[in-house]
Every structure is written in C-alpha cells, then in structure tokens.
Design a protein that fits this description.
It comes from Jiella pelagia. Keywords: Oxidoreductase. The chain is of the alpha/beta class. The chain has one domain (about 5-270): 3-Layer(aba) Sandwich (Rossmann fold), CATH 3.40.50. It has 9 helices and 11 strands. The chain has helices at about 5-10, 20-35, 65-80, 100-130, 150-170, 205-220, 225-235, 250-260, 260-270; strands at about 15, 35-40, 55-60, 85, 90-95, 130-135, 175-180, 185, 195, 220-225, 245. Helix 2 (about 20-35) crosses helix 7, helix 3 packs parallel to helix 4 (about 100-130) and helix 4 packs parallel to helix 5 (about 150-170). The termini are far apart.
Length: about 280
C-alpha cells in the first residue's frame, strides 16, 4: 500500500496543544465530534475528565525532548498527523518597564518558541504526507497596540509574521498555515496571566485603568466554544484564508487597523482602554 493510500484509509489525526481546559479543550472536543482522531496535550495532568474521543498526552512545548517524544508517540499510534493546533500560551500584564527580561524569556519560550518547536516537529510528517494544516492561535493583540500587555502583544505579532511567512514556504507540499485571532474569551487563559515582577508606582494609574477596561470586557467575552468553532472552520476550509478573526468586533477592529489613519486609530485605542 502506498503512503497516499494509507493516508486516505485512516481517520484524520489532530494534535491540539494546551488542551487541558479553555479553548484547547473546546477545540479537542469539537474536532473529535467532527470525526478526527484527536490527541490533546498539556504540561500538567488535566484536573477534570478527559473529553470523549480525545487521547491526552503529557507535553511541554518548551522542551525539545518532550515535544519529540509526544509527536513520535502520535505518529506511531495514528500513522500520521493531519492537523496541528498550536493553542498553548500564557499571558503577561504590566507596564513594559515593570517586566523583567527573565519574564519575557518565559513568555516567548511558550508563545513563540514553543509554537515553532511544535511546528518543526510536525512538518516532516506533513511533508511526507504531502498534506497538512497548521492552525496557530494568535490574538487581536497580534494586530493592534496593547498598552500594559506589550510583551504579550509582541509575542503574538511574532506569531503573525512567522505564520504568514511559513505559509508561503510549505504550500508546495500541500500544507497550509492559518491564524485564528480571538478577542476577549472566557477560558482558562486568565489563570495563566503573569504580572510584572518589579512594579513601579508611576504606572499604577494607567495599569489600573487598563485592568478595569479588561475586567469590563470579560463580562461580555466570547466562549471558548465559539473560538473552537472558528478553529474547526479554519481547519476544514479547502481554500483557507490566512486569518480568521473571532469574537465580538474583532473582524471590524482588524479592518479598521488597516484602513483608518494611524493617528485616529491611536486615539481610539487610548479612549477604549481609558488612557485618554
């Protein structure tokens, strides 16, 4: 049997990082319901029950050996990987000056290098298959300024540039790379948001104003399930778009970022985030 016929004979296989809760868990459930053979991963063992149809594995995206071991296990058990959802991520809030470089290293190790590490581990399998889809979780903050979340925004801007560039490199192998850009979402992410480790009093007022804006926004935030629905669309599209915005107003924000004069957009950001 040829490689292509073996591939056609099996169920599609999906690998979802950060699947112990929130968007990752909702995505794993949605993919299993859609007929995928789903492998979810988490750095720590999930506290709740494993979603039906999902095989959970231990994986630390910041470790080369952990990533290699998990990917090898999936390939051995399932015969390939058709979809990678790079969802694992952490947040970091505070004025840029309040955050140490050590904290920034930790943030990028998960949000950027971890995503790249996972991609590098899966791409050889997808190239051999001559097919595959990689869905990278970005954020609306990968498109706009994010006062008091500058390093988080920088990590997502990096994911945007990396993903758009990589998509051009792998198309000849039948592989596509797409971005899903959530807005505010009710998920386990909030529990993974770190704070600056060297607070400075001068930034207290601005930090509190942005925190108030964030808290208000979370009251009307979208669900993890709504983001999972968009991830499934991005995964299944025959001719995928590069970017899929999800959440209230995120598509409009992305449009305005491109067409509104920078000075007007700057004023709008400051007003919305209560810095004006």
């Amino acid at each position: 049997m040829t490689t292509s016929s073996k591939h056609a004979a099996r169920r599609k296989v999906a690998l979802v990082t950060g699947a112990s809760g929130g968007i990752g868990e909702a995505t794993a459930r949605a993919l299993a319901k859609a007929g995928y053979s789903v492998f979810g991963t988490s750095r720590r063992q999930a506290a709740g029950s494993t979603p039906d149809g999902v095989r959970m594995l231990s994986l630390d995206v910041t470790s080369d050996s952990s990533v290699a071991e998990a990917v090898a296990t999936i390939e051995a058990e399932a015969g390939g990987i058709d979809l990678l959802v790079n969802n694992a991520g952490v947040g970091l809030m505070g004025a840029a000056e309040e955050i140490s470089i050590a904290q920034v290293h930790g943030l990028f190790e998960t949000n950027v290098y971890g995503l790249m590490r996972m991609t590098n581990a899966v791409l050889p399998i997808m190239r051999r298959q001559r097919s595959g889809r990689i869905v990278n979780l970005s954020s609306i903050m990968g498109l706009i300024p994010a006062p008091f979340s500058a390093h988080y925004a920088a990590s997502k801007h990096a994911v945007e540039g990396y993903s758009e560039s990589l998509d051009h490199e792998v198309r000849d192998f039948g592989i596509r790379v797409v971005l899903v850009e959530p807005g505010m979402t009710r998920s386990a992410f909030e529990s993974n948001v770190g704070r600056g480790d060297r607070p400075i009093a001068d930034y207290g007022k601005g930090r509190a104003q942005v925190a108030g804006w964030f808290s208000e926004g979370m009251k009307a935030a979208d669900t993890a399930e709504s983001v999972a629905e968009k991830i499934l669309i991005a995964a299944e599209a025959k001719d995928p778009k590069l970017r899929y915005a999800t959440g209230k107003g995120t598509g409009l924000i992305a449009l305005l970022r491109r067409v509104v004069p920078s000075s007007a957009f700057d004023k709008s950001v400051r007003k919305q985030m209560r810095l004006a």
